[in-house]
Amino acid sequence: MASNLIQAGGGCDANFFNQMGIECANLGTGMYELHTVNEYLVLEEFFRSAEILLETMKLNAIEH
Predict the structure, then answer these.
(1) How far apart are CA 29 and CA 51, in angstroms?
(2) What is the mean pLDDT of the chain?
(3) What is the C-alpha separation between 29 and 48, in angstroms, rounded?
(4) What single-letter DSSP state applies at residue 61?
(5) CA distances from 60 to 13, 29, 53, 54, 63 (A)
(6) C-alpha to C-alpha distances, 32 to 5, 39, 47, 49, 58, nearest whole angstrom
């Protein structure tokens, strides 16, 4: 079976959405050494990412 190579732009969904015209950014969540046996998460950074996301949503919310 032959392989077909395609450009993927990285391992984040933001790349796909941006390519389709939906502007978005990738926000890191404090994960390190991904997809290895040494993968780990820094909880302080993880919770800070959630705070950044929540504040971004508040600032961009549409009032009804």
Answers:
(1) 11
(2) 83
(3) 8
(4) P
(5) 21, 21, 11, 10, 9
(6) 27, 6, 15, 14, 28
CB neighbours (10 Å) of residue 26? 13
Global pTM?
Answer: 0.62
**Cβ–Cβ contacts within 10 Å for residue 63, how many?**
3
Q: Where are the domains of the chain?
A: 29-64
* % of the chain with per-residue pLDDT over 70: 80
* pLDDT tens, position by position, 13-43: 888 898 899 998 888 888 888 888 999 999 9
Contact between 46 and 32 under an 8 Å Cβ cutoff? The reply is: no
Q: How far apart (Å, rounded) are the C-alpha atoms in residues 51 and 30?
A: 13
